[in-house]
Amino acid sequence: MKILTILIFSGDRMSIKELLDDIVELNKYNIDVRVVEWSNDKKNLIKKNYIYKIYKKKIKNLKIYYQGGNWQQKYKIFINKFKSKYILLIGDDDRINIVNFKKIFKYLKLNYSGITLSYKNFQNNFEIEKNDDFGLNYIRPFNLRSDLNKIGFTSCQIIRVNLIRKIINEEKKYLTKSMFPQNFIILSIIKKFNNWKVLELKCIYNRSGSLDIFKINGKKLLSFLKISKRLKSEYLGYLSPLKKNFMELSDYELKRIYNNIFFSNIISWIFLSIKIKGKRKTYNNIKSVRGIIKEPFLVKITLMVIYICPILILDFLRIFRKFLKKVF
Hints:
The protein has two domains: 204 residues, Spore Coat Polysaccharide Biosynthesis Protein SpsA, Chain A (Alpha-Beta Complex), CATH 3.90.550.10; 115 residues, no CATH class. Helix 9 runs parallel beside helix 11 and helix 11 packs antiparallel against helix 12. It is globular and about 60 Å long. 50% of the residues lie in helices and 17% in strands. Strand 2, helix 2 and strand 3 form a beta-alpha-beta unit.
């Protein structure tokens, strides 16, 4: 049995070439590499098939699948398909920190139910340093309140495959309807097996796009026009699986978790949605999801302040918040 399957979903982007370059450096390890290609662009497919032909000679155990459908459909088909001990699904535009990633294999010999890897943001490939060794090589238990927001970074989740099968068998009806199957599976595993870890070592480069709509091109702007769905998904992707698995927690603890998710993840998308859609449409959009779990008083007050603040002040607060995150 292979210790790890690296699963990549790839569409119209050509950035998978750089990711495959990273994986070449892992050839000596006991892994499988599987790419699910879903591009419908014939010219693009010709180019990508040429890339795959080259890398099949460079990467041991590389196999390509061709599968259409949305992300959730592909996830439900392929996350339970392979027989390795662990699986990591990574986006085709993200990258691997080779120096640090090689250090995780000693942890994969242990019987953790899963590991959330730490990451470093980047926007352009020149920002990546080949000998970049950053972060503490320290593994610790998953903390639901402070770490829940981390499970939303798909490329950072190493999951025990046999536990995925158990959850799918037990919760097949719920998973069939879920728009966020990975978040649900991870929280279910954490609840049932209580052996999930967080590795502070930054093993993944997460490609972060700019949220400044004045600095993005027309093609990217079209994707941002789907902001209503994206913002709603921040609530649904975290709060729905939390409610399903951890409603026995006290109101106090649930509110602390909600506050952390709101201020670490959701609020940025609210700012962006207001800039694109306006305040009224943004607030109408989230009206049905704000109460999945009882909304904390601090979140209510914050949303009220955002609603009455002029856009210029909100822009200043957004920039100031971004500065504080970089500093601290």
